[in-house]
Amino acid sequence: MFQRFVEVELEKSLAKPFVHILFGARQTGKSSLVRKLVPSPSLSYDFSNPAERTRLLADPGAFVWECEALTRRSSPHFVVVDEAQNVPAVFDAVQHLYDREKTRWRFVMLKICDRPSTSPPG
Length: 122
Prior knowledge:
Layout lengths: L1 H13 L5 E5 L5 H8 L5 E4 L3 H9 L2 H8 L8 E6 L6 H12 L4 E8 L10
Parallel strand pairs: 1-4, 2-3, 3-4
Helix pairs in contact: 4-5
C-alpha cells in the first residue's frame, strides 16, 4: 500500500518542472522505483560506481557540460543521479542549471539517508 502511494505521488510530481530529491535508507527501492517511472532518462549517473564518482569528483563541471550538451526539445530531459550525496558538487551544478532554465531538464536526485547512530556521543 505504501509503495503504491509513493509511486503515484512521485509519478505526479515528476510531471512538474522541479528538482526532485528522493531520500531513503539503503536498499529500500528508491532506484528501482525511479527506473520504473523514468525508464529511459537522457542522462543517468550512479555515484555508487567508483569510476563515475571519481570522474565527477575530479571535474564537477563535466556534469554541467553533459547536461548542456543535450539537444533542446519541447519535452524536458530527465537526468537521474543515484547516490547523489557521494558527489556533493552535483547539488550546486543542478541548482545552477535549474536556475538558468527551469523547464529544460527534470532532475531526479536519489540520496541515501542512513539511520542515525543510536550510540551516545563521545
